[in-house]
Amino acid sequence: MNTDLSIFRLITEASFVVQFVMLVLATASLASWTFIFAKRKELNRAVEITDEFEEQFWSGVALADLYRKLSAKDFEPEGIEKIFLAGYKEFSRMRQTGTVEPMVQVESAQRAMRIELSRELDRLDEHLAFLATVGSTSPYVGLFGTVWGIMNSFMSLGNVKQATLAQVAPGIAEALIATAIGLFAAIPAVVAYNRFSTKLYRLTGRYELFVEEFVVLLQRQAHSK
């Protein structure tokens, strides 16, 4: 109880610069936690959709039937489903012309899937840069507040004939709080960024592998009568 009140008092009695640094770090921490929960849910959803789609795709269902199911009006495709729809739609469009060579049909479908793949990865990568920024800069911002607070503490002793630890301790303590808040903001952001980057890297590999496997199937279908 006393410790909480002491910390609260140190924060409220800190200099304006130190308080501003604390406010910036607290805001960055709150924003990063918001992005962490949202991104975790988004990536887990993307993995879940990929698992379900691959199970359907390799179950032996006809590609045309799968396309009709995913392109229905009451269905909202996500993630790898959009990649499949983009490729099969372009492949069907090129094939219906009747004048396009099989290799061109497949290459056109592959380009369409690559475009949709890039869009999906851009969407999943959103806010990761913010987490990296918070993780890398928060300790330095907190250190700036600490240095400023300690500097003010020692400057206040200029007119004191005999300095004591009791006179310096409050100023140093309030300054160190800024470093603590900086670490509190940085550590979760760094951990989340590394975890999400790894998951996104694996998901990217699964997307790219699906594109290559789907291209092989389209090549067979393009050369079939």
From TrEMBL:
Membrane topology according to the record: Multi-pass membrane protein
Domain MotA/TolQ/ExbB proton channel: where? 80-208
Report if keyword Cell cycle is assigned. yes
Q: Name one GO cellular component term.
A: plasma membrane
Instruction: Enumerate the InterPro entries for this protein.
Output: ExbB/TolQ_transport, MotA_ExbB_proton_chnl, Tol-Pal_TolQ
Q: Can you tell me where the transmembrane regions are?
A: 16-38, 128-151, 171-193
Entry annotated with the keyword Flavoprotein: no
Grouped into one coarse class, the protein's main location is membrane
The free-text function statement in the UniProt record for this protein reads: Part of the Tol-Pal system, which plays a role in outer membrane invagination during cell division and is important for maintaining outer membrane integrity.
Cite the NCBIfam families for this sequence.
tolQ
Q: What is this protein called?
A: Tol-Pal system protein TolQ
Organism name: Methylocucumis oryzae
